[in-house]
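Good morning C.,

I know you're traveling, so I'll keep this short. The sequence:
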Amino acid sequence: MGKSSLKCEAAVLEGDVKFMEWHKQGSTQYITKWKKKYGFKGKLVVTECENLVTQLQQKAAFCKKAQLELQCAKLWLLQAKRRQEQRKAKATAAKPPTHVHAAVIKADEETHIVCRSQQDRSGPDPAAPGAEPCLAGGGANGVKQAAPCLEGGGANGVKQAAPCLEGGGANGVKQAAPCLQGGGASGTKQHETQAREGLTPHKIDIEQWATDIRGLQTSFNLNGDEMFRVFRNHFKHEWGRVRDTFTGRDEGGNILRHNSEILRQGMEGVILRTKQTLVPPPNYDKINQCRQKEGEDVYEYQGRLEAVFKAHSGIPESTEPNNPYQQHLKLALMSGFQPKYSDFIQKHFVNHSTANVNEIMNWATHAEGVIQRKKRRKI
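The tokens, ready to paste straight into the viewer:
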């Protein structure tokens, strides 16, 4: 009866339950029981998962069969904490600076440097009432006035065909492509803001960020100008370090279409330069310093170590058991476990040197349970 009900449950997995079953097969086998007995809602919320783990720890102290159920609950808690940390990191990365300095350029006049708050960037230029000059140059709305383009150009930015930073045609003069602050056509501020939501910060997980960027472009059919602004607003002051020659336009100054091969190659160039320039170099001292604390659960330690290992190992993440990433992670786990657990594994698990991470974690959980039961008997 129990097995058949689990099969029925697996057929209708959705939301966080579906994600957990994909992430760790078997981690949802008790979900129906948890919902009925503990009121668990099947959501990756830290407070709910902590409450579930607390109740199961009390049960596992007297029932050996509850150990596996407790392990599944701890996997849920671990993923809930990761999701919470990712949300905090994204919120921090998305927080705009308080002020920005902008060059207000008017034809045949000297350049004035003004300091505007982030909220005032889309407002009218105080030096020219009623006008909204593009940050890179141009007249009202960055369309008709031939002011020098930030990227280059001849006298007044007319003769040399360098695209205006915020939009417009070649030379930043006549083509009314949407400016990020002004909107217009399909590249409105709301459209691009919606497209950027959910991007993984590149300093947290570079491979996931690269996947997100590619998916964002294809999902929203963003053209060259729109991708230029997405990149620039994501990288902010670091954009110049990875931009190179990417403008989102062809040699004639025309905006690249969303399905352009030149646009795809340009995006891949930005992604490659980000990996080479902005990703911190490997730092194994950081990994070696991440050790299991006294009283820390083995799965909690695994989650903490994996975050440090992913950020500082310099090895592309992979879930393949025999991949170098997983093998080095296994060695880091064995080195970082408390000696009582690592010694137990080396003594009782003959194949520990060729095992994968999941096998090592199963033995670490077993060692943890055995040692805790010995302590209770002594008491």
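Safe travels,
E.
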